[in-house]
Amino acid sequence: MDRENTQENIRTEIFYLAWPAILEMVLETSVWMFDTAMVGRLTASALSAVGLGGQLMYTMLNIFSAVGVGCSAMVARYCGGGEYDRAEHVVGQSFLLSIIIGSIMFVTLYSIIPTFFNKLITQTDIAAQGIIYTRIIAVGGSIMVPTKVLNYALRGSGNTRVPMLSTLIADLFNIFGDYALIFGKFGMPRMGVAGAAIATSISQALSLCVSAGYLIFNKNGIKLKFADIRNIDSGIIKKLISLGVPASLYEFSDNGSRLISSLWLSRMGSIAFAAQQVSVSAESMSFMPGVGFSVSAATMVGQALGAGNEEKAEASTKESSKMAVIFMSIIGLIFFIIPGRLMSFFTNIAGVRNLSAKCIRIAAFEQPTMALSMALSGALKGAGDTKGPFYVTMISTWMIRLPLIFMSVFVWKLSIEYVWIITDLQFLAEALLMAFRFKKGVWKKIKL
């Protein structure tokens, strides 16, 4: 009976942490989805430009903001052990580091954009619009780095509601701004892809204000204090970097490989490439439960280890994984049954819609294994084992996904659907490797 009650309590705590994180992911994904859906009413080249520009920016954002993974792990561990002053000191140092990193990201991204599009994209219309879109959205990207790091800190402390709220406010503005600036509504000029980028950048500034404002002025949770920001604590910074570098490499391996494959796929023509971008946008809906339960696993594992309760850490991981697989399998079933209706939301270009429907139906089969991989990755990172997920993605991405995609596009000359079959194989391998890493138990011995 006690064990059943414990399991029930764990499930309750998982849902308490997961549902705001899931809703946050729904809202965060909607930024890209609405950009894609509205720009999808323009031209195939505009759709490709926004898809590729957004992928470049979000790839760099995920790489540069991965320091937040270390922040979350440390905050969770200290909060679990009741060391709230140490947790707040980590938050302050993480915020200071994120501002520096965000500035570096902006300068880097802004300077490489023309070369990226002009040298690597053969279609001049896609390149021209991509440069405009990505240079503007780079401003929003630099703001998103400290926002994401602060939200990581909040989740590590067990607060998943404020990150959800900051994303909600940003997205409401982004949807309105997209409509007004892309199509020239409510007295605004018709700006096309530039309007989509401006709306997104402003919305991210609003999101930062909400997250930072809460951490500064709240009375019940951990706080962001000036005293923890004004001076650099080399010990904390080194620890954040040591945890963040493998997490950054993980993001580079995952997102960077997707960007490389997108460059390869752009050579298949604007219709096939637009279908790929639309399919990726639709597929991103399925990530939501996986991310939510990954967040709950990371927070609960970190806090359980901080309290010296390894048994709860293991039980939390198993329950989070189980729930992630169930929810994402349901989404996979929807992908398989009504792919055409889903794609109609993203574009009214018939050729793009029909081809992307075939791709998303294939993506249905990757949902259970992707869910397991995401939940286990979150648990490992929450324990401070950021190296494990990095090693796994290096194998699944660079030894399976990219070589097979290269052969598919340049040697075998296969259609875009085969890329999605390859992705199914990648996530199967990734789930098995994550499970092996977790079972080894290296994560239990990590000291923070």
Short description:
This protein is mainly α and 448 residues long. It has helices spanning 2-39, 44-64, 67-80, 84-120, 124-156, 161-183, 193-217, 234-265, 270-283, 287-306, 310-337, 339-346, 350-363, 367-382, 387-411, 417-440.
Describe what this molecule looks like in 3D.
The protein has 448 residues and is mostly helical. The chain has 16 helices and no strands. It has helices at 2-39, 44-64, 67-80, 84-120, 124-156, 161-183, 193-217, 234-265, 270-283, 287-306, 310-337, 339-346, 350-363, 367-382, 387-411, 417-440. α1 (2-39) packs parallel to α6 (161-183), α3 packs antiparallel against α4 (84-120) and α13 (350-363) runs parallel beside α16. The longest helix is centred in the first third of the chain and has 38 residues, at 2-39. The model has no long low-confidence stretch (mean pLDDT 89).
